[in-house]
Amino acid sequence: MKKCILLLSIFFVLANCKSESKLNVESKSDIDKKVDSLLGVMTLEEKIGQMNQYNGFWDVTGPVPSEGDAAKKYDHLRKGLVGSMLNVRGVANVRKVQKVAVEESRLGIPLIIGFDVIHGYETQSPIPLAESASWDLEAIKKSAQMAAKEAAAAGINWTFAPMVDISRDARWGRVMEGAGEDVYLGSKIAVARVEGFQGEDLSNEETLVACAKHFAAYGFAESGKDYNTADVGVSTLYNTILPPFKAAKDAGVRTFMNSFNELNGIPATGDKFLQREILKGEWNFDGFVVSDWGSIMEMMDHGFAKDKKHAAELAANAGSDMDMESYAYVNELANLVKEGKVSEAVINDAARRILKVKFELGLFKDPYKYCNETREKEVIGSKEMHDAALDMAKKSIVLLKNENNILPLEKEGKKIALIGALAADKNSPLGSWRLAAKDNSAISVLEGMQKYSGNQLTFSEGAKVVFGNTNFINEVEVNSKDTSKFQEAIQNAKKADVVVMVLGEVGFQSGEARSRANLGLPGVQQELLEEIYKVNKNIVLVLNNGRPLTITWADEHIPTIVEAWQLGSQAGNAIAEVLYGDYNPSGKLPMTFPRAVGQVPIYYNPKNTGRPGPKKEVFWSHYQDESNAPLYPFGHGLSYTTFKYENISVDTSLKENIKVSVTVTNTGKVKGKEVVQLYLRDVIGSVTRPIKELKGFELIELEPSASKEITFNLTKNELGFFNNKGEFIVEPGEFKVFVGGSSVTSLETIFNY
Ligand code: BGC
637 and 607 in contact (C-beta within 8 Å)? Predict the structure, then answer.
């Protein structure tokens, strides 16, 4: 009889779940009710199952645990012990695992399917650092929208993006995946990406649940070495590290991922302060937190957990709701609950958060809504995707230097020598984090330039760059010493009017676990550059890279330098359009380029110190053997036209809305875009403030000779900062305001608040 009543209540609960309507604000309380009734019929093991995430069967994005065989995973799916899978992609594969979860498990709760849609699914847009160089929030949002649409057509409904970790250290390979060094720009981009991925309605099958990662301080790994310790003070934590996460939360991001690193002695995965106090407490985040790959069990290596059971206890109590590939929750949590070490309330809370997001996606109504073969065929790799990728790629290019106006290139009657193995490489432009892209599918620079057939084009590899076995998992060989192709390149350069050299990093040379201690051009590429320079000085250096590089020699000698990052599937077309002037570049650096590795971490907004310089005597904060100045500052980027800044004025008559105005004029001969940047300095603070901080920017486009007055509005949000108790305060006093086309600004004035 009892069993009969239970079965009947399960039937009613599930029937009710299936009639879930589209998510909108009004239906939130409905969802809560449905989640509650579902929780009411779930066993402890089934609730813990929701907290368990398994990797799929082929793509691997971390070390593989020994427990991870396919038979066991299927068995657990059937028993309702899996809430999510990652790296299962393609409609047929997703349908296969979803079918087991929905049709063979007792309650038929659908899986949420996660994947690293970092800069595209199959069609790759530029790496996130490159996109950030566009400072074009609409374009970045659109790019995330396109990525969501393409990935969702492949059965995915959850992306592990955006990565909103601020980093000031180009040695850290994952700078390619973020928005760079600045908290203001990073926060705006975090919002654009969350809005792009999630859209306005999660139950729309062209959107994905987004995930703000890695919470927190992963970008502050000591010495730029991935997974390393982060030890930062409260001021940096509150003012630099946390705000982009808060911005993502305020934009409605539904999931967070914690991080591999420890922060001030506590592994982030087991950090109650971060997850319970800040995220779920102070910020009132009601989505769920997934661990990073294996980061629960890694707390044993950190010397924080004595065994896996202890790790599960620490992570669950600290607020990590879902276990990615540690097999810790599924094996240990039930016993921990029975022993009273983890309360049932913790399990209920985690399961509730996860189920809620599944309802919001509409998965209970139709678990196969992301499994539409026709849509998969139509959307993936479509013209719409490639057009968007090309548009984003052009906007991401930064013109670092253009002496003698070598660029744009003339379209007729010139001899052009294209040199560098990367120029013909169709894989590297795809960058890192591109698991679903087809190998060698990008348009190379060579292909892009061949479309401009009015010139005579020769190609030579010059320096060998090792591509062999450069996949996501294996170590990349970066130090080829092979100079056997130099001579051919030198001969071609001798005969050319202009030499275009494409040098930099192969696609997997940045990204996770790709830290570098040296930031120069890898292998013999620097040697090649110097050899070519001896025979032809008319060089355009096109950089392909996932991080700032110390190209100090190049800056001193090479007249023209273009930062073209790893621009994705349409890279070669975008680069050729910029080189030939069909697109006027407007990108600005989202990260400072150092002159030497010894300057790292280097960023535009340090504190002034008690001994700023320069001074005649030696006792000031500087290096003996290198300038303090960067090679290229944050915010730097040129155009084929020029801009004049004048008439800075401040209106403080409305105290809470301070208006700063400037006039910007296009003083060149062609139409161009400019990112007008505003920086502030709070001169005296109860906690010292940086020498300047970005607090506003506007992307404008001007015809030749046209002027525009730009007005920025400064409110408490821009004037204030977090004190060392984590409280946001605004202090009256003197502020300096700077405006210009980079962080090295041309206009400056003062106002009192
Ligand atoms: C990375 C995460 C990623 C996860 C799943 C980890 O190694 O740190 O950023 O989302 O793998 O692929």
Answer: no
Instruction: Give the mean pLDDT of 433-438.
Output: 95
* pLDDT tens per residue, range 678-705: 999 999 999 999 999 999 999 999 999 9
Coil, strand, or helix at residue 728?
strand
Q: Quote the CA–CA distance of 546 and 519 in Å, as a whole number.
A: 11
| Residue 275 Cα distances to 146, 160, 340, 477, 629, angstroms | 31, 18, 21, 38, 38
CATH code, domain carrying 683: 2.60.40.10
Verify that 560 and 699 share a domain, yes or no: no
Residue 651's SS3 state is strand
Residue 209 lies in a domain: no
Whether residue 546 contacts residue 387, with contact meaning beta carbons closer than 8 Å, is answered with: no
Look at residue 543 and tell me if it is in a domain: yes
CATH number at residue 583: 3.40.50.1700
Q: Report the distance separating Cα 13 and Cα 230, nearest Å.
A: 46
The pLDDT of residue 474 is 74
**Each residue's pLDDT tens digit, 267-279:** 999 999 999 999 9
Q: Which residue has the higher pLDDT, 468 or 150?
A: 150
| pLDDT tens track for 117-141 | 999 999 999 999 999 999 999 999 9
CB-count burial class (<10 Å; 0-12, 13-18, 19+) for 699: middle
pLDDT at site 479: 64
| d(C-alpha 68, C-alpha 70), whole Å | 7
Task: Strands of 308-440 (E only): list them.
Answer: 323-324, 398-402, 415-419
Chain mean pLDDT for the chain: 94
The rounded Å distance from CA 213 to ligand 1 centre is 9
Distance in Å, CA 31 to ligand 1 centroid: 29
Give the separation between CA 689 and CA 191, rounded to whole angstroms: 25
Beta strands (DSSP E) in 163-285 are 211-215, 255-258, 262-263, 266-267
Average pLDDT value for residue range 485-510: 96
- Coil, strand or helix at 116: coil
Q: How confident is the model at residue 161 (pLDDT cuts 50, 70, 90)?
A: very high
Catalytic residue among 292, 323, 391, 682: 292
Determine which of 225-229, 651-655, 684-688 has the lowest per-residue pLDDT on average.
Answer: 651-655
Domain extent for 492 = 393-599
Span from the CA of 453 to the centroid of ligand 1 (angstroms): 43
Q: What is the DSSP letter of 735?
A: E
Substitution candidate for ligand 1 out of 113, 512, 514 with most atoms within 8 A of CB: 512
Burial of 624 (0-12, 13-18, 19+ CB in 10 A): exposed
Is there a domain that residue 164 lies in? no
Domain check: are 593 and 696 in the same one? no
Per-residue pLDDT tens over the stretch 68-115: 788 888 999 999 999 999 999 999 999 999 999 999 999 999 999 999
Question: Does the annotation count 182 as an active-site position?
Answer: no
Whole-model pTM over 0.70: yes
3-state secondary structure of 239: helix
> Quick one: 60 exposed, middle or buried, by C-beta within 10 A (0-12, 13-18, 19+)?
middle
Give yes or no for residue 12 having a pLDDT over 60: no
For residue 245, tell me if it sits in a domain.
no
CA of 150 to the centre of ligand 1 (A): 20
Task: Please list every protein residue whose CB sits less than 6 Å from any atom of ligand 1.
Answer: 61-62, 86, 116, 160, 213, 292-293, 512
**Residue closest by Cα to atom 4 of ligand 1:** 293
Give yes or no: residues 468 and 595 share one domain: yes
DSSP notation for 177-199: GS--S-HHHHHHHHHHHHHHHH-
The count of domains in the chain is: 2
How many whole angstroms from its chain centre is CA 481?
A: 32
